[in-house]
Amino acid sequence: DVALGLALAPNDDADLEGFCEHYPDLNFGRITLRADAVDDQRWETVLVHELLHIKHGRIDSEVMRGIAPHVVGVPYEMIDGMYKRAVEPFINSLAKELVKLGRA
Fold it and tell me: Mind listing the pLDDT tens digit for each residue in 39-71?
């Protein structure tokens, strides 16, 4: 299940277009879009991007559960940040391509 909401500043960041919280063990996610979202390709890409994060959440969770405990001497936050820097461009690229396909 996915809940959708609007906020003036998602995750308290006025520059953020969208934000998702995902709970992979519950198979649930919540997407918050900035309140000025409109029905155009840019915002459709933001929404698909956040949906992909939710759908990919179970994979992210399993990767972190499998990797983080075995990396000695490196804080979890650093490992999580490195993983997110690798995954974010993939999610962004996939979202753009899916929106293009949907509009074709």
Answer: 899 999 999 999 999 999 889 999 898 988 898
pLDDT digits (tens, 9 = 90+) for 17-45: 999 999 988 889 999 999 998 889 999 99
Can you state the angle between helices 41-67 and 76-103, rounded to 10 degrees? Answer: 140
C-alpha to C-alpha distances, 34 to 7, 31, 38, 55, 103, nearest whole angstrom? 5, 10, 10, 21, 23
Q: 38 is written with which tokens?
A: 């409109």
DSSP states along 43-78: HHHHHHHHHHHHHHHHHHHHHHHHHGGGSTTS-HHH
61 with 25: CB under 8 angstroms? yes
Tokens 């490992």 found at: 79
